[in-house]
Amino acid sequence: MNFDVIIVGAGLSGSYLASKIKKLGLNTLIIEKSKSIGGRFSTKPVGGGIADYGCQYLKPKTKELSELIQILKNKKLIKKSNVLQYDDAFIAPYGISKIPQYLSLGVSTLLNQKVSFIKKTTNQWEVKTNSFSLKSKILVLTMPINQVSDLLKVSDLAIPNLPTAAYKSFYTITFQNMNAIGSKSILKNDFAPWICNNLLKGLSIDQNIFTVNINEELSNTLLNVEDNKKHELIKRHLKECGFKNFSFYNLHYWKYAFTEGQNNIANYFNENNMLALCGDSFSVGQADGAVVSAQKTFEQIRDVF
Ligand SMILES: Cc1cc2nc3c(=O)[nH]c(=O)nc-3n(C[C@H](O)[C@H](O)[C@H](O)COP(=O)(O)OP(=O)(O)OC[C@H]3O[C@@H](n4cnc5c(N)ncnc54)[C@H](O)[C@@H]3O)c2cc1C
User: Fold this and answer.
1) What mean pLDDT comes out for the span 212-216?
2) Is the pLDDT of residue 1 over 80?
3) Is 100 in the pocket of ligand 1 (CB under 6 A)?
4) pTM to 2 decimals?
5) Where are the domains of the chain?
6) Distances (CA, A) of 13 to 62, 79, 172
7) Residues 47, 207: contact at Cβ < 8 Å?
């Protein structure tokens, strides 16, 4: 099947771009390797509730994200929160993954399909996944820059001069606990810079569901430890933090979590071969970077059609 635009990745950047392109009436397809939409805007069911286990809150620095926030606020998908005592931060009461889910509404999406090879022929891109071979005029890659480089390399394509983005890598744990351990929504200690009670953060749940990010040093140690020992060690740390009665424990490793203090070019677009790159590797990183670079990509695609 032939498309005008194929977007690889259904995270914030890919879904925001899709929401904009949809209005141009272009035949667009999103391809996502995971089984759900969201990327790092991810929410998981945990016991009797849900937990945001990737992006935690939005604190806009750019006009692009501020404008998106206004739209999401009107749809009641986000609300103000005093998370970390910021008075200009927003959280998503039904889970942060509702944002990319809403943005990608009405756009054809293939889930569970990893793009493993891309090829440029005279006037179109061939995109291969585990099940399909698809074609499009424009190809947009929205994953972290290191994953873009990997895909270009296996596809035997030249790697353009791309910006660098230094991602933090760490483990995130989610679980339900009988008690709240204090009245604050966010706590931290030496082992975990982010201990979040999703109930107190403002999610529409009635259980104490926690998201804990483990510090990078311990995460690096855990990477080289056998699974049994890894879980034993983490559970010991959790008990020391005061979590005496937890269940539905789950562990996830983020190789590319987020960058800090980044200020790169807004995106990459090659009009000769119709390849576009956007996502949080560009611009100022995090949610702002993802939206700014997708907006720029949208404007360039609009000018081509
Ligand atoms: C633990 C954590 C906490 C965070 N906290 C915050 C925060 O509080 N505030 C904030 O602003 N930001 C935060 N961030 C960062 C924020 O989540 C990201 O910057 C943003 O979600 C990036 O969106 P994206 O669309 O650029 O990338 P992604 O969300 O990574 O989307 C890329 C998508 O591409 C898919 N993909 C990759 N390779 C392929 C392939 N070959 N084929 C098909 N699909 C593929 C991936 O599965 C993914 O869904 C946090 C991130 C993490 C992990």
Assistant:
1) 96
2) no
3) no
4) 0.97
5) 2-43+61-165+264-304, 170-254
6) 15, 21, 22
7) yes
Residue 142 CB less than 6 A away from ligand 1: yes
Tens of pLDDT, residues 224-282:
999 999 999 999 999 998 998 899 999 999 999 999 999 999 999 999 999 999 999 99
User: Hey, what are 19's tokens?
Assistant: 């929401």
Tell me the CA–centroid distance for residue 95 and ligand 1, in Å: 15
Domain 2-43+61-165+264-304: give its CATH architecture: 3-Layer(bba) Sandwich (3.50)
What is the per-residue pLDDT across 279-302, written as a single tens digit (0 to 9) for each? 999 999 999 999 999 999 999 999
* 115 Cβ below 6 A of ligand 1: yes
Q: Is the CB of 60 inside a 6 Å radius of any atom of ligand 1?
A: no
Distance, in Å, from the CA atom of 303 to the CA atom of 301, rounded to the nearest integer, reads 5
